[in-house]
């Protein structure tokens, strides 16, 4: 199983949706709050080249922007990760 990291901010509906999706698929993940952790923000920026959450990293695949647009890719990456 690949490592999964979700970069989030508090009170973010898309962040919560990504976490619910991963949980519903039985995927263990690490959550990093980029608003409260400058190192996590820098890490997210280095991996995704964006400043907006959520960003989901599954192995070497990075998903960002609108959650609904990324859902099929996240599910595909989870399938490949199993």
TrEMBL record:
Gene3D superfamilies: Glutaredoxin. PROSITE patterns: GLUTAREDOXIN_2. It holds the Pfam family Glutaredoxin. It comes from the Bacteria. Residues 4-62 form the Glutaredoxin domain. This is Glutaredoxin.
């Amino acid at each position: 199983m690949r490592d999964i990291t979700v970069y989030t901010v508090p009170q973010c509906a898309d962040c919560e949706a990504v976490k619910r999706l991963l949980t519903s698929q039985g995927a263990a993940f690490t959550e990093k709050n980029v608003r409260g952790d400058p190192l996590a923000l820098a890490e997210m920026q280095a991996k995704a080249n964006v400043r907006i959450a959520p960003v989901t990293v599954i192995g070497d695949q990075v998903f960002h922007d609108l959650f609904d647009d990324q859902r099929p890719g996240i599910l595909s990456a989870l399938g490949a990760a199993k």
